[in-house]
Design a protein that fits this description.
Largest sheet: 6 strands, parallel
Low-confidence stretches: none
CATH topology of the largest domain: Rossmann fold
Strand content: 25-35%
Number of strands: 24
Organism: Streptomyces davaonensis (strain DSM 101723 / JCM 4913 / KCC S-0913 / 768)
GO molecular function: O-acyltransferase activity
Mean pLDDT: 91
Number of helices: 12
Protein name: Lecithin:cholesterol acyltransferase
Radius of gyration: 21 Å
Structural class: alpha/beta
Number of domains: 2
CATH architecture of the largest domain: 3-Layer(aba) Sandwich
C-alpha cells in the first residue's frame, strides 16, 4: 500500500549507486563472498597476506568481455577496508533516509555492480537496471504512471550515472542526479596507488593493493584528467605512457573512460562536495616515483590548495554544477553523514533547507595503517580552539569505543596521540561543536611482524 501521509513525499523512483568497493562481490560458481564481508579480520588477513585478493584481480578473459566469473551482490552492509583508499562505509543510512522520504519504500532500489570493470561497460548495466526499476515503480499501485527517475550516486557511481544520463539516453527519464564526492576529473590518488612501492619500500598491505589495482579497469577510469603533473614548464596532463611508467597498464589507461565532461552539465545534476580534508591535487614525477601535492599550480606559476574530501579534490567533485553543497567530511563517509542525508532529502523533495551546506569545518589527517600498541598522531586542520574538539576511536565491527584521544595545540598544529590495542579495522571520529564527526577508517596490524612494514 502506498503511503500518502505527509506532505512533500517523493513519488519518483530512486536508484542508489555506490562507489568503488561499495558493492559486495560474489564468486558465481561457489556463491562465496569475495568482497564485502562483515568480519574485519578478513580484511586484515587479505591485505597482510594477499590471500583472498587474487580472485578479485581482473583476468584476461574478463578484459575481453567474458564476465560472469564474479557477480555483484548487495550494497555494503558493513565497512569494507582498503589501504590508501580507506575503503567504503555501508550505505544503509542513506537508503533508509531515502525510503523514509518516499511514498513507499519500494520506490527505492539499489544498484550493486562489479566495480572492478570499466565504467562504460557498467553504465550499460545501470541503464538496464534504471529502465527496469522505473517500469516496475510506474506499475506499482496507482498514480505513478508519470514518475521519473532519481539517481543518488557516490564516488565512482556518479561517473556511471552521468555517463548514462549524457551518453546513453538517460536524460529523458532522469529528473535528478545527485552525486556525492564523484571524481568527474579523476583523482591523483589513483595514480599514487598504481605507483605504490616504486622507488621506496611500502608496507605490505599497500603492495598488495598496488598488485590488485593494476589489473582493475575501473581504477584507471579514476585517473586524473586535468593538468595535474607539475613540471618546470607548467602543469600538464597525465599521459598513458606516464601511467605505464608509474607501474600501471598502458593499454588499460589508453582504453579508460578519459571523459572530458561538458562545462555545461546536465540540468539534472546536483553535487555534494567534501572539503577541508588534506587532498592530493597535483603531483610531480621524479625517476618514476609519484610525489603527490596538496595544491594545484596555475599557468601563472601560483599555487592554491582547493582542499577536498581526502580523495577527490573540490574542483573535480563539482562537475561544473552551479550550486554544489559543501561539507567537511572524508570521502568514504560522505554517503552516511547526517548533513548529506538531510541535503539529499531536501534536494529530492524540492524543499528548501535554508542556507546551503557551508565550507566551514575541520579536516582530519590520520594514517590509514598503524601498528598495534604503537602511538600515532591524529592531526586537525582548521580546528581553531583545541578545547572545542573531541576524538573517539571505535571498533568498526562492534562500535565499541577503545580510546578518546585529547587534542592539544602545539604552535600552529592541533594534534592528539593515540594507540590501538588489538588488530582490526577501526573508525576515527573527530567532532567539532555544532557539526557531525569527520570520520575515517584505519587498519591496525601487528607490530611484531616486520614483513607487514617493509617490502
Amino acid at each position: 500500500m502506498v503511503n500518502d501521509a505527509g506532505a512533500g513525499k517523493i513519488r519518483d523512483a530512486i536508484l542508489v549507486v555506490p562507489g568503488i568497493m561499495g558493492s559486495e562481490l560474489v564468486d558465481t560458481e561457489s556463491g562465496a563472498l569475495l568482497w564485502g564481508l562483515r568480519d574485519p579480520r578478513w580484511y586484515l588477513s587479505a591485505w597482510t597476506t594477499g590471500r583472498g585478493l587474487r580472485q578479485l584481480a581482473v583476468t584476461d578473459e574478463e578484459l575481453d568481455g567474458k564476465t560472469g566469473r564474479v557477480r555483484p551482490g548487495r550494497l555494503l552492509r558493513a565497512p569494507a577496508y582498503a589501504p590508501v583508499l580507506r575503503g567504503s562505509e555501508p550505505y544503509t543510512a542513506l537508503v533508509r533516509k531515502l525510503e523514509d522520504a518516499c511514498v513507499h519504500p519500494c520506490a527505492v532500489a539499489e544498484f550493486a555492480y562489479d566495480w572492478r570493470l570499466p565504467v562504460r561497460r557498467t553504465a550499460q548495466f545501470l541503464a538496464d537496471a534504471a529502465e527496469c526499476h522505473l517500469r516496475s515503480w510506474r506499475g506499482f499501485g496507482e498514480g505513478h504512471g508519470d514518475a521519473r527517475l532519481i539517481i543518488v550516486a557516490h564516488s565512482m557511481g556518479g561517473l556511471l550515472a552521468r555517463h548514462f544520463v549524457e551518453d546513453l539516453g538517460g536524460a529523458a527519464e532522469v529528473r535528478t542526479l545527485l552525486t556525492l564526492g564523484t571524481p568527474y576529473f579523476g583523482a591523483v590518488k589513483a595514480a599514487v596507488i598504481l605507483n605504490l612501492g616504486r622507488g621506496s619500500p611500502v608496507p605490505l598491505p599497500r603492495k598488495h593493493l598496488r598488485t590488485l589495482a593494476a589489473t582493475l579497469p575501473g581504477l584507471y577510469d579514476l585517473l586524473p584528467r586535468y593538468r595535474c603533473v607539475d613540471e618546470h614548464g607548467g602543469p600538464r596532463l597525465l599521459t598513458d605512457a606516464d601511467t605505464a611508467a608509474l607501474g600501471g597498464n598502458g593499454d588499460l589507461a589508453a582504453s579508460s573512460l578519459g571523459h572530458r565532461w561538458s562545462d555545461s552539465p546536465p540540468p539534472q545534476l546536483r553535487a555534494v562536495v567534501g572539503l577541508n580534508q588534506p587532498t592530493a591535487q597535483s603531483m610531480t614525477i621524479d625517476a618514476g616515483k609519484v610525489n603527490p601535492r596538496n595544491f594545484l599550480r596555475g599557468a601563472d606559476g601560483g599555487s592554491e590548495d582547493h582542499s577536498g574530501d581526502g580523495t577527490v579534490f573540490r574542483l573535480s567533485a563539482t562537475g561544473f554544477t552551479e550550486r554544489p553543497g559543501y561539507l567537511s567530511q572524508q570521502h568514504s563517509a560522505l554517503a552516511k553523514a547526517p548533513e548529506t542525508l538531510d541535503l539529499a532529502r531536501a534536494v529530492l523533495t524540492e524543499r528548501d533547507l535554508g542556507p546551503p551546506l557551508g565550507a566551514r569545518g575541520v579536516g582530519v589527517d590520520a594514517p590509514d595503517l598503524v601498528a598495534v600498541g604503537q602511538p600515532f598522531t591524529v592531526r586537525v586542520i582548521g580546528g581553531g580552539d583545541a578545547a572545542g574538539l573531541g576524538c573517539r576511536i571505535q571498533s568498526a565491527e562492534s562500535h565499541t569505543q577503545i580510546a578518546r584521544p585529547v587534542f592539544q595545540r602545539q604552535g600552529d598544529e592541533i594534534t592528539a596521540r593515540a594507540r590501538i590495542p588489538a588488530p582490526g579495522i577501526y573508525r576515527i571520529d573527530v567532532k567539532q561543536t555544532g557539526a557531525s564527526p569527520v570520520s575515517c577508517l584505519v587498519m591496525a596490524a601487528p607490530a611484531d611482524d616486520l614483513s607487514l612494514w617493509e617490502e
